[in-house]
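Thought: the user asked what MAP1B protein looks like in 3D. I have the sequence; next I should run the structure tool and report back without guessing.
Action: structure_tool
Action Input:
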Amino acid sequence: VSKGPGNTKVAKSTAVPPGPPVYLDLVYIPNHSNRKNVDVEFFKTVRSSYYVVSGNDSAAEEPSRAVLDSLLEGKAQWESNMQVTLIPTHDSEVMREWYQETHEKQQDLNIMVLASSSTVVMQDESFPACKIEL
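Observation:
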């Protein structure tokens, strides 16, 4: 928030402004997929073949169910039904519930959620991983 003329508070928007769509191959959904920064306008404007959905903090609502629902709403307004793949970085309860509850709509919109069965081991740590070829 900043001070405008006459000491009036003017909120600074961090959302994507409306405009022509931008097409990308891979997009990392900002701010751990938190709804404070990502809404329907983001997905209407930033169109990607792959979206990385990070976040593993249910207390902070990351990833946010509202963001995942915004993807469905935004994608429904695209002119084409291009394939979209979601790549979750964590197996979260929010992601699992959203996947199960909206699976039919995901299929209608040509959205696939990538589940990883691969594991990367680095030093003392192991974690699921996905390989993407563009």
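Thought: the tool returned a structure. Summarizing for the user.
Final Answer: Structure for MAP1B protein predicted. Strands lie at 2-3, 9-10, 22-28, 46-53, 84-88, 111-113, 118-122, 125-129. The helical segments are 30-33, 40-45, 65-75, 93-101, 103-108.
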